[in-house]
Amino acid sequence: MAWQNNTAQLCGMVDAAGVFSHRSRGVDYYSFPLLTRRLSGAADRLNVTLPGPMLPQLPPAGWRLTVRGEVRSFNNRSGEGSRLLLYVYAQELLPAEDEDRNEIELAGTICRDPTWRRTPMGREICDLMLAVPRRYGRGDYLPCIAWGRNAQEAAQWKQGRPVRLTGRFQSRNYIKVTETGSIQRTAYEISITSFLPEA
């Protein structure tokens, strides 16, 4: 696939049937979870959304599938769950590959200064928020995370810097403490594999 500013290629197992998500400009959209395994054996349960005309191409739960599309974000104003929701918008559904796959390529602009820190285990980590333009003047805001040397490099950057990167779309469970108790939630982010030279 030729380089664009936002490409996602996933291969994994369909974890549930597609369900109605929303309707936009006369088109119904459906969503389903796709499980992709990392080399460590841990699994990411990723949200995939597709337009209704593609729904007959979706195999049953338990079957493997390859998805090509884009990573997109949605600002959740319902008050429930994370405020920024990430998902893969499917543009193609293809036969499954032999191995699980999770490859993301993005080109965008850092929309706030990166945040560097160390984990309790001493690993360097840096959080970035990347604004990736879409057609018709729209855009997606995608949280990205860099480790080690990539974190050191990203920590030197400022808001407004253009960035091209490769990575993986991953899920991460965490506990949110509220006034009424603790709630388990899932965060989604792009784990950066490498930064690429600007075109």
Describe the structure.
It is a single chain. This protein is mainly β and 199 residues long. Helices cover 4% and strands 62% of the residues. The protein folds into two domains: 6-101, Beta Barrel (OB fold (Dihydrolipoamide Acetyltransferase, E2P)), CATH 2.40.50; 105-196, Nucleic acid-binding proteins (OB fold (Dihydrolipoamide Acetyltransferase, E2P), Beta Barrel), CATH 2.40.50.140. The chain has one helix spanning 148-154, and strands spanning 6-14, 19-24, 27-37, 43-51, 64-75, 84-94, 101-110, 115-118, 124-133, 139-147, 162-178, 181-196. The two termini are 16 Å apart.
Average pLDDT level: 91
Rg calc = 17 Å
First-last Cα distance: 16 Å
Number of domains: 2
CATH class of the largest domain: Mainly Beta
CATH homologous superfamily descriptor of the largest domain = Nucleic acid-binding proteins
> What is the structural class?
mainly beta
Number of strands: 12
> The biggest beta sheet, please?
12 strands, mixed
- The helix tally amounts to 1
**CATH architecture type of the largest domain:** Beta Barrel
Large-scale geometry: globular
Element pattern in H and E: EEEEEEEEEEHEE
Q: Examine the coordinates and then state which fold CATH places here, giving the name of the CATH topology of the largest domain.
A: OB fold (Dihydrolipoamide Acetyltransferase, E2P)
- The poorly predicted ranges are none
Strand content is over 45%
**Helix percentage:** under 10%
